[in-house]
Amino acid sequence: MRIRRPVRRSPLRGPLLPVLLIGSAVIILTAWYYVNRAVSGSAPDLTGFQSVIHQEDVNADGRNERLLILPRPDAPIARDLRADGYTLRFDELVVLQGDAVLLRVTRDAMTDADGTVLLGQERAAHGYAFRRELWEEPAVYAGPVVLLHVVMTDSAGEAVSDEITLYWKPSTGRYAATNTFGAEGTF
Length: 187
Known about the structure:
Radius of gyration: 27 Å
Helix content: 10-25%
Order of helices and strands: HEEHEEEEEEE
């Protein structure tokens, strides 16, 4: 007669296997949800925005950016601002590199890629007027850059603030804002 040895069952058989499978699925789905939420949360809602610059290297960093505005199409621009080159009025402006926001201008604040406020300001109740300028300074930039000039406007399209220049600051790798562009410490 043969002696039968008891068969050892794997600890993964029985009720432990379904618990492990379900637990693993929950962990994987939870991780997928948080990764996708973080990625999709980085791209701003651009409904209603108009492209002003599409896929150009505006800051001489070797990568293409997009400049978008949320326009105020029915808002007038004062004659003196038009004479200075201001052609658009907007409520919001965004500079994107892929889906990453490099610069955002809203009625409440001008912020860089980290959301840091670039300068203190009053609320721009009637938005801004905008012009752009191609600028070259070989000592500072590897190529031409686009300077963004904005002024707050009133309901008639008149400037109610100093001109603010929004520019790429190579020393920080971020956008900056000033009303004294080119002064010592700008770059």
